[in-house]
Amino acid sequence: MTNPLLQTSGLPAFDAIRPEHVEPAIDTLLKAADDALEHAVRDAVPADYDALSAVLDVCSERLR
């Protein structure tokens, strides 16, 4: 099943969104946010705002 809430380009196909799409989309996006956070706190990522922002902005924007 293709989930229109996980579409990454343009606006979602609003007419295709169904209630059963919401929970899997949130689960997927939260997992991606958790993975990004785990990546952001690694020693290889500089501890400054710009570096952390670059890692976390994409996943948090998708959750919005």
Task: Walk me through the structure.
Helix 1 runs antiparallel to helix 2. The protein has 2 helices and no strands. By secondary structure, it is mainly α. The model has no long low-confidence stretch (mean pLDDT 86). 58% of the residues lie in helices and 0% in strands. It starts with 18 loop residues before the first helix and ends with a helix. The longest helix has 22 residues, at 19-40.
In short:
The protein has 64 residues and is an all-alpha fold.
What's the structural blueprint in terms of helices and strands?
Elements: H1 19-40, H2 49-63
Helix pairs in contact: 1-2
Essential attributes:
64 residues, mainly alpha
The class by helix and strand makeup works out as mainly alpha
Largest sheet report: none
By DSSP, the count of extended strands is: 0
The succession of helices and strands, N to C, reads HH
**Molecular shape:** elongated
Overall pLDDT metric: 86
Radius of gyration: 14 Å
Secondary structure: helix percent: 55-70%
Strand content: under 5%
Give the helix tally: 2
In angstroms, what separates the terminal alpha carbons?
A: 22 Å
Low-confidence stretches: none
